[in-house]
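Action item from last week, closing it out:
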Amino acid sequence: MKYTRIAALAAISVAASLSLTACGGDDSGKDSSSKGSSSSSSSDGGSKSEASDAKSGSGQDTKANADAANGAVKTGAKVTFCKTEDLAINTRDAAPDEASGRIDITMINRGSATCSATGFAGVDIKDADNTSNPIERGQAQPRITTLKPGDAAVFNLSYDIDNSGESLSHPTNILVTPPNETHSVTLEWPASAGNIKGAYTDVEVYPTHTTK
Protein backbone atom coordinates (compact mmCIF):
# COMPACT_ATOMS: atom_id res chain seq x y z
CA MET A 1 0.00 0.00 0.00
CA LYS A 2 2.88 2.27 0.87
CA TYR A 3 4.52 1.31 -2.42
CA THR A 4 1.38 2.23 -4.33
CA ARG A 5 1.35 5.74 -2.76
CA ILE A 6 5.01 6.25 -3.68
CA ALA A 7 4.27 5.24 -7.29
CA ALA A 8 1.30 7.59 -7.35
CA LEU A 9 3.42 10.47 -6.06
CA ALA A 10 6.06 9.67 -8.68
CA ALA A 11 3.39 9.77 -11.40
CA ILE A 12 2.12 13.11 -10.14
CA SER A 13 5.71 14.45 -10.14
CA VAL A 14 6.22 13.33 -13.77
CA ALA A 15 2.92 14.91 -14.79
CA ALA A 16 3.93 18.19 -13.14
CA SER A 17 7.30 18.06 -14.89
CA LEU A 18 5.57 17.53 -18.25
CA SER A 19 3.25 20.43 -17.52
CA LEU A 20 6.21 22.72 -16.78
CA THR A 21 7.91 21.60 -20.01
CA ALA A 22 4.77 22.45 -21.97
CA CYS A 23 4.71 25.91 -20.38
CA GLY A 24 8.37 26.32 -21.32
CA GLY A 25 7.43 25.50 -24.93
CA ASP A 26 4.82 28.30 -24.92
CA ASP A 27 7.42 30.79 -23.63
CA SER A 28 9.80 29.68 -26.37
CA GLY A 29 7.05 30.30 -28.88
CA LYS A 30 6.57 33.84 -27.52
CA ASP A 31 10.30 34.54 -27.88
CA SER A 32 10.25 33.33 -31.47
CA SER A 33 7.28 35.52 -32.18
CA SER A 34 9.18 38.44 -30.65
CA LYS A 35 12.15 37.65 -32.84
CA GLY A 36 9.81 37.46 -35.75
CA SER A 37 8.55 40.88 -34.84
CA SER A 38 12.15 42.03 -34.62
CA SER A 39 12.82 40.47 -37.99
CA SER A 40 9.79 42.28 -39.33
CA SER A 41 11.23 45.55 -37.99
CA SER A 42 14.48 44.71 -39.69
CA SER A 43 12.57 44.07 -42.88
CA ASP A 44 10.86 47.46 -42.51
CA GLY A 45 14.26 49.02 -41.98
CA GLY A 46 15.42 47.38 -45.19
CA SER A 47 12.42 48.80 -46.99
CA LYS A 48 13.26 52.28 -45.70
CA SER A 49 16.83 51.80 -46.83
CA GLU A 50 15.67 50.73 -50.29
CA ALA A 51 13.29 53.68 -50.43
CA SER A 52 16.17 55.93 -49.48
CA ASP A 53 18.32 54.37 -52.17
CA ALA A 54 15.49 54.73 -54.66
CA LYS A 55 15.08 58.36 -53.72
CA SER A 56 18.81 58.87 -54.03
CA GLY A 57 18.80 57.12 -57.38
CA SER A 58 15.86 59.22 -58.46
CA GLY A 59 17.82 62.33 -57.54
CA GLN A 60 20.76 61.14 -59.62
CA ASP A 61 18.47 60.41 -62.53
CA THR A 62 16.95 63.88 -62.19
CA LYS A 63 20.41 65.44 -62.15
CA ALA A 64 21.43 63.37 -65.15
CA ASN A 65 18.30 64.48 -66.97
CA ALA A 66 18.98 68.09 -66.00
CA ASP A 67 22.57 67.80 -67.23
CA ALA A 68 21.34 66.27 -70.45
CA ALA A 69 18.81 69.06 -70.81
CA ASN A 70 21.47 71.67 -70.17
CA GLY A 71 23.68 69.99 -72.71
CA ALA A 72 20.85 70.09 -75.19
CA VAL A 73 20.30 73.75 -74.45
CA LYS A 74 23.98 74.47 -74.89
CA THR A 75 24.04 72.50 -78.12
CA GLY A 76 20.92 74.24 -79.28
CA ALA A 77 22.39 77.61 -78.30
CA LYS A 78 25.63 77.01 -80.20
CA VAL A 79 26.30 79.88 -82.57
CA THR A 80 28.16 79.99 -85.86
CA PHE A 81 30.83 82.50 -86.80
CA CYS A 82 29.71 85.81 -88.22
CA LYS A 83 29.69 85.99 -91.99
CA THR A 84 31.36 88.91 -93.71
CA GLU A 85 28.16 89.68 -95.62
CA ASP A 86 26.28 90.15 -92.33
CA LEU A 87 28.78 92.60 -90.85
CA ALA A 88 28.94 96.37 -91.25
CA ILE A 89 32.65 97.20 -90.87
CA ASN A 90 34.27 100.60 -90.44
CA THR A 91 37.52 102.14 -89.23
CA ARG A 92 38.55 105.17 -87.20
CA ASP A 93 41.73 106.73 -85.88
CA ALA A 94 41.83 106.09 -82.11
CA ALA A 95 45.42 107.09 -81.31
CA PRO A 96 45.74 107.87 -77.57
CA ASP A 97 48.67 110.25 -78.14
CA GLU A 98 51.10 111.54 -80.77
CA ALA A 99 53.50 108.63 -80.34
CA SER A 100 51.18 105.62 -80.26
CA GLY A 101 49.15 104.85 -83.35
CA ARG A 102 45.92 102.90 -83.03
CA ILE A 103 43.17 102.22 -85.50
CA ASP A 104 39.89 100.76 -84.24
CA ILE A 105 37.98 98.54 -86.62
CA THR A 106 34.35 97.97 -85.65
CA MET A 107 32.13 95.14 -86.88
CA ILE A 108 28.36 95.39 -86.35
CA ASN A 109 26.14 92.34 -86.72
CA ARG A 110 23.49 93.29 -89.28
CA GLY A 111 22.27 89.72 -89.64
CA SER A 112 19.11 88.23 -88.13
CA ALA A 113 20.86 85.68 -85.90
CA THR A 114 23.42 85.72 -83.09
CA CYS A 115 26.94 84.96 -84.30
CA SER A 116 30.48 84.72 -82.97
CA ALA A 117 33.28 87.12 -83.91
CA THR A 118 35.77 85.56 -81.50
CA GLY A 119 39.43 85.55 -82.48
CA PHE A 120 41.80 87.46 -84.72
CA ALA A 121 40.67 89.08 -87.93
CA GLY A 122 42.92 88.72 -90.94
CA VAL A 123 44.38 92.11 -91.89
CA ASP A 124 46.41 93.30 -94.86
CA ILE A 125 47.44 96.90 -95.46
CA LYS A 126 47.61 98.08 -99.03
CA ASP A 127 50.28 100.65 -99.82
CA ALA A 128 50.28 103.43 -102.41
CA ASP A 129 52.66 101.32 -104.51
CA ASN A 130 49.86 98.67 -104.78
CA THR A 131 51.66 96.14 -102.60
CA SER A 132 49.68 94.31 -99.92
CA ASN A 133 51.26 93.63 -96.55
CA PRO A 134 49.89 91.04 -94.06
CA ILE A 135 49.80 92.24 -90.44
CA GLU A 136 51.17 90.13 -87.60
CA ARG A 137 49.15 89.22 -84.50
CA GLY A 138 49.90 90.93 -81.21
CA GLN A 139 50.58 88.99 -78.00
CA ALA A 140 47.05 88.74 -76.62
CA GLN A 141 44.53 85.99 -75.87
CA PRO A 142 41.21 86.09 -77.77
CA ARG A 143 38.10 86.80 -75.72
CA ILE A 144 34.65 85.36 -76.30
CA THR A 145 32.90 87.80 -78.62
CA THR A 146 29.29 86.84 -79.29
CA LEU A 147 27.15 89.31 -81.20
CA LYS A 148 23.39 89.47 -81.12
CA PRO A 149 21.76 91.31 -84.02
CA GLY A 150 22.79 94.95 -83.72
CA ASP A 151 25.74 94.27 -81.36
CA ALA A 152 29.24 95.45 -82.21
CA ALA A 153 32.73 94.03 -81.83
CA VAL A 154 35.96 95.94 -82.19
CA PHE A 155 39.60 95.09 -82.76
CA ASN A 156 42.53 97.37 -83.34
CA LEU A 157 45.78 97.85 -85.19
CA SER A 158 48.66 99.15 -83.11
CA TYR A 159 51.92 100.77 -84.21
CA ASP A 160 54.38 103.54 -83.38
CA ILE A 161 53.87 106.88 -85.10
CA ASP A 162 56.63 108.40 -87.19
CA ASN A 163 56.61 112.16 -86.68
CA SER A 164 59.80 112.73 -88.66
CA GLY A 165 57.99 113.10 -91.94
CA GLU A 166 60.30 110.48 -93.46
CA SER A 167 58.08 107.40 -93.14
CA LEU A 168 58.49 104.98 -95.99
CA SER A 169 54.96 103.59 -95.50
CA HIS A 170 52.06 105.13 -97.38
CA PRO A 171 48.95 103.08 -96.51
CA THR A 172 45.82 103.61 -98.58
CA ASN A 173 43.53 100.71 -97.64
CA ILE A 174 42.96 98.05 -95.00
CA LEU A 175 41.74 94.63 -96.14
CA VAL A 176 39.81 92.93 -93.34
CA THR A 177 38.76 89.28 -93.15
CA PRO A 178 36.57 88.62 -90.07
CA PRO A 179 37.61 85.74 -87.76
CA ASN A 180 37.04 82.30 -89.30
CA GLU A 181 35.88 83.81 -92.58
CA THR A 182 37.36 83.75 -96.09
CA HIS A 183 35.66 86.80 -97.58
CA SER A 184 37.27 90.18 -96.99
CA VAL A 185 36.23 93.82 -97.26
CA THR A 186 38.37 96.77 -98.32
CA LEU A 187 38.33 99.84 -96.08
CA GLU A 188 40.04 103.21 -96.44
CA TRP A 189 42.99 104.02 -94.21
CA PRO A 190 41.79 106.78 -91.84
CA ALA A 191 43.03 110.11 -93.18
CA SER A 192 43.83 111.42 -89.69
CA ALA A 193 45.94 108.42 -88.68
CA GLY A 194 49.62 109.05 -88.02
CA ASN A 195 52.36 107.72 -90.26
CA ILE A 196 53.75 104.29 -89.52
CA LYS A 197 57.20 104.19 -87.95
CA GLY A 198 59.33 101.44 -89.43
CA ALA A 199 57.80 98.85 -91.73
CA TYR A 200 54.38 97.21 -91.98
CA THR A 201 55.87 94.28 -90.09
CA ASP A 202 55.92 96.57 -87.04
CA VAL A 203 52.14 96.91 -87.07
CA GLU A 204 50.17 94.44 -84.93
CA VAL A 205 46.53 93.36 -84.93
CA TYR A 206 44.75 92.44 -81.70
CA PRO A 207 41.77 90.12 -81.14
CA THR A 208 38.14 91.18 -81.15
CA HIS A 209 36.15 92.14 -78.07
CA THR A 210 32.65 93.46 -77.49
CA THR A 211 32.01 97.16 -77.06
CA LYS A 212 29.71 96.66 -74.03
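Closing note: The first strand starts at residue 80 and ends at 81.
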